[in-house]
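tool=predict chain=A
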Amino acid sequence: MKNKKGFTLVELLAVIVILVIIIIIAVTIVKNHTLEAKKKSILANSIAYVKAANTLIVELKTTDNSIIEGTLTVDELNNLGIPINGTKPETGSVVVANSTVVYSCLTYEEYKVEYRDGNYLDVVEGECINPKMNISYTGREKTFKAPVSGIYKLEVWGAQGGGNTPGSTSANRAGSGGYSTGYITLQAHDTLYINVGGAGSAGDHVAGGYNGGGASGNPGSNGSGSGGGATHIALASGLLSSLSDHQEQVLIVAGGGGGTDDIGNGYYNGSDDGSGGDGGGYIGNYAYINGSKYTSVLPGSQTGGFQFGKGQNVTTNHDTGGGGGGFYGGYTTANNSGGGTGGSGYINTTLLEDAEMYCYKCSESNETATKTTSTDCIEETPTENCAKLGNGYAKIFLVSTN
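tool=predict ok
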């Protein structure tokens, strides 16, 4: 009989290697099929969601004349009751123009899918870049990178000066921040730099609000307030005052309000009205001394003021309000019982479309480059076409991909 030989060690290893390769190939094929099936499901859910969004837009327009335009997040759409039974995206947003979805980016787990120019792009790993950004005051610069080429709306509110709350019945009132808005065409990955103004404070020579507010004076018996900072968006990084040699890079500015001279009296008593001037518009508002508008000290304008991007500090020992920040900052009256003047707004009409400024009871202009509307509206919540209480604010959002 012949001796039966078993497999050698080399042969066994070869068999094991072949089996491992077969298993890897099989697992890869299964994994790829599973992934492709998952991507198809994500794409189908994305298509269904965009269709449902279009249906919702039409229904709202038909039933209660609700016109939806601009950028809506997934959460906002869900709260509106989007009619879909399929899987909803976890995050993302859609852009509505002319009552139809023109762009969307939706995320499902670790994947995203974009709808652009009437086509759905490939499902890929990654998160959507939000084409909508709301920027509150933080005391530092923020950046916004355009996720897609299109038309974006810019809105900025300046900060109020320090002292009593602005309002038509208040004496010794601080100036409110202005409001500016406009539309700009951006290419994908263009970067904007945003600095939101900080409100002025009350105290002995306290610093002005972030982004150009002027410092207050000696508070005396009742105290004085510093100027509010401007809010601006630019194509270059830096505080507004640092861009004096690069003014063409500044897109839009909302001026800050001047500080009050006296925070002790809440309402006009017939003898003392040292109010700060309101910010915003092509020219800020004048300050008041002893109940009268003090025209000897100018507010910020389009071509002058205390300084580009900065309100004047009070350097005397008078209880005087600091100047408001702005495209050009306001002056301080540098007298007892005097507020600081308001800083000006700005709209770069060579780069912006349909741009306009609003400010509280201010001088108006119908010129395209300085278009300014006076308003009686002052709100703490950032409100379109209204002056601002408290800290400044900014909004950027995609309006259309056309």
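The chain is about 15% helix and 25% strand. Residues 131-402 form one domain.
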